[in-house]
Task: structure prediction
Amino acid sequence: MAEKTSTRQDAARRTPLTSSHVGSRLWVLLAAAWLVPGAGHLWLGRRQKGVTFLLTLPIMFAIGLSLNGRLFPFHPPEPLVALAALATVGMGLLNMLARLSGMGAGDVTAVTWEYGNAFMIVAGLLNMLVVLDAFDIAEGRK
Result:
């Protein structure tokens, strides 16, 4: 009996979210997954993954800020600066809140500056991968 229940739950998890009447729900799911790391997985019933992402990615971003990392501005003439800015945008709401509160000015003279940048950039890129994973789950590919 318990085996049949778990099989039904697995089948429910694999059903695509992108049928014609729920296509807009997919966009809401993706926006939520981008704004709050792990929210997409929590929405799709993947609690363990969702909680893991919800805890680890913001902690990585906060460590980067505490190590005097910089939230780079969008400056297209300097391609690496623009790419770093796009990478940190991957953290969604946390990136917006940090920018609005004036955090992430960075201190080039700090010994930990490069480490802080690396933590924030990697956290943003990982969240982008988490959003893509939530998309694949919603599509029924995983």
Observations:
- The CA atoms of residues 69 and 116 lie 4 Å apart.
- The helical segments are 2-14, 23-35, 39-43, 47-66, 79-89, 93-100, 113-139.
